[in-house]
Amino acid sequence: QKDPDYLKLWLDSFVSSYEQFLDVDFEKLPTRVDDVPPGISLLPDNILQVLRLQLLQCVQKMSDGLEEQQQALSLLLVKFFIILCRNLANVEEIGMCSYVNHVITMTTLYIQQLKSKTKEKEVADQTPIEEFVRHALAFCESLYDPYRNWRQRIAGCFLSTVEKSRQKYKPASLTVEFVPFFYQCFQESEHLKESLKCCLLHLFGAIVAGGQRNALQAVSPATMEVLMRVLADCDNWDDRNPEEVSRKAELTLKCLTEVVHILLTSSSDQRQVETSTILENYFKLLNSDHSALPNARRCRQWESKFIALQIQMLNTITAMLDCTDRPVLQAIFLNSNCFEHLIRLLQNCKVFQGRLDCLAVSTIQALTAVMHKSPAAKEVFKERIGYAHIYEVLKSLGQPSRELLEELMNMAVEGDHMAVGILGISNVQPLLLLIQWLPELESHDLQIFISNWLRRICCINRQSRATCVNANMVIRIIETLNSHSALHCTCAENLIALLGSLGSQSMGSEELLQLIRLLRTEEPKQAHPYVVPVMRAILAMARKQGMASALQYFNLCHSMAGIAVPSIHKWPGSAFSFNAWLCLDQDRVDPSTTSKSGKRKQLY
């Protein structure tokens, strides 16, 4: 306490001994070290009090400007605290002291200097200041995310709720200074380095991922305003490093995803912001009115950057919906009119010149995510938007790519379209859309590819055929075959073979009449090119294949499906019996039934 030089020498020696714990780069996973720094009880007596006074003196001298020696001491103190916090048993006690408030005060002043654009700043070396800021943010991370959950999250390692519950030490309680500090850092921050903004976003993500209590304190109207403003700024790159700006957008979206997941696990009295409010602002930004921008910004290069941001935002919707409380979040998305916003995005993007197909693919992925395994969401989409409308919107974008058509296939099976035999039809409407689109496709290769896949997925088992028949697919196929001049012969043969398979399941008189009318030609003596394949299809319908089975049956494939019998007082007489044959399809494997948490049907 009486000899500052000796204190600095001791701190230097301590930091040098445990330098491997100073992993201040947020982009890297924490390094695994067998050793741990000492506990507070093993440090010299009163050392924490001495260091607090030293830190306080540095804060008090900040307004006049710190000398080089004092700058070095303040950085050394922050390094010391980072190392100390890497022994997780020390985190709570360090967090209860005033160190973090002093560090935040100094960091605020330093960031103010870094944000100002002055001649002195251009001449002076800013490296020591930047180094202090990076270490200060890493110190806060050590307090509020001691297990580095956020770093693992951005590296692609997702911790389950059970794994998080096993974390022995809790993060320190978040200081009330954080939200004003975070908000102020992004005020008038045009001249602040993008890499430092990324560090600030990393810290916010770490606080949210570190623990629910701190997360709910950090997620406030002010911090959400900052995230939306940062996101809106990502389409204006100017002369900044494009990679850093793109990374900033990516981190902001990851923060928003983490925020949505945290809010889902909380009660309404704990939340400062509702998920619906976040989504409202999110969709408003996604559908920004570019026509209001000055012409200088509406150049081709800006369009490319803006579309790239929109694609990132659409992909984030899919990431948000990848959570345990998916049905709850799907309901919030529906109440936020997400379908209307997504369709409007496709309609508005026609004024742009490039990457429209990528935008359409990401939009279809987002729609699929919102409707995934939710009959209610599918019904809402059908009523509010309709597949006829989305077909017209997609068609207006020009000839589709294979990727876009494959995404519609993925929407139909709610998974990978290549997994035919594992995934059945979850949403038949995109299949009808694809059949309708076939004559419009200029690429014969695409026509053959789609028709071949449709034939396989629709005929895979009795349930798939029944689903297609109930959706009036037979009539849709006949309407498409009427445009035979636009169809490749192989594509037409695939569709007719599919027609025969569906007809063997069920074929109405009106459908049969339409099929016969299809074979009419203007020249009486000239046979229609479809005569032979259609006759084969009709023979296939008439022929009985496989085991004898009932033509009318109950479909109990849905997890909530069952047969309800009348209540006892409505039974005729003293008893009630119900007889039925049971048919178990063996040719479809549902991935959910093979998992530990899968359900199985029970017969009583």
TrEMBL record:
GO molecular function: protein kinase binding
GO cellular component: cytosol; membrane
Alphabetical keyword list: WD repeat
InterPro entries listed in its UniProt record: ARM-like, ARM-type_fold, BEACH_Domain, Neurobeachin_a-sol
GO aspect biological process, one term: intracellular protein localization
Transmembrane domains' residue ranges: none
A Pfam family recorded for this sequence: Neurobeachin
Residue stretches making up the Neurobeachin alpha-solenoid region domain: 298-541
UniProt-recorded name of the protein: Neurobeachin-like 1
